[in-house]
Design brief:
alpha/beta; 7 strands; globular
């Protein structure tokens, strides 16, 4: 009888002992998946160099400087300090999940082509995933430089609540206008650039 009781209790004792032992080491997690597709966006190194044919700074009182933030470039390389960006420049905050952003992105790409070195067009992808942003860039043929701001630090520093958001920066590095009117088309972009940056671009 005692032998039978011992035989029944032994597995329970062993099981109880296993619950008090240190857990086995966790397996080392695999390397995070890297995006092997080439980025559609341009590199960011040129953002700190004035555009080749930059227009002079507009006459009149300037606004504040861009916030004192440093953001990574979507394509890699050195991060970019926003206050080192050389204007005139059009900075567009966008996200793949934002329908008005998707609607206006092709107009910003056309602006970058039509500006012909007189201003810089810069994207800031905000609160987004890299894969989603890359897919939008590929789908819409976006090739201008893009900074990555997953934490929305620029939007918050500008004290704005939504995207799309477009910031026009003069050759003096001062913010000349912040537009929150929604999706911009070619004509509206050309008008804003002419009025606030003194650059004539044919829509």
């Amino acid at each position: 009888m005692k032998r039978r009781l011992t035989a029944l209790l032994l597995p329970l004792v062993l099981l109880a002992g296993a619950c008090t032992t240190a857990p086995a080491e966790e397996p080392t997690p695999a390397e995070p998946r890297r995006n092997t597709r080439p980025s559609p966006f341009a590199a960011c190194a040129a953002l700190t160099v004035p555009p080749a044919s930059a227009a002079p700074a507009p006459v009149g009182p300037g606004g504040p400087e861009l916030p004192e933030l440093t953001l990574p470039c979507f394509t890699g390389g050195d991060p970019v300090a926003l206050r080192d960006v050389r204007g005139p420049a059009v900075v567009n905050l966008w996200a793949s999940w934002c329908p008005p952003c998707r609607k206006e992105l092709p107009a910003f790409q056309r602006l970058s082509e039509r500006a012909d070195g007189r201003l810089q067009v810069i994207g800031v992808n905000t609160r987004d995933s890299r894969d989603a942003a890359q897919s939008i860039g590929e789908d819409f043929g976006v090739r201008f430089p893009v900074l990555f701001d997953q934490g929305e630090s620029l939007r918050r520093a500008l004290n704005r609540n939504a995207v799309p958001l477009t910031v026009l920066v003069g050759a003096d590095g001062r913010v000349r206008h912040v537009d929150t009117s929604g999706a911009l088309d070619d004509a509206r972009l050309a008008a804003l650039v002419r009025e606030h940056l003194g650059v004539l671009v044919t829509p």
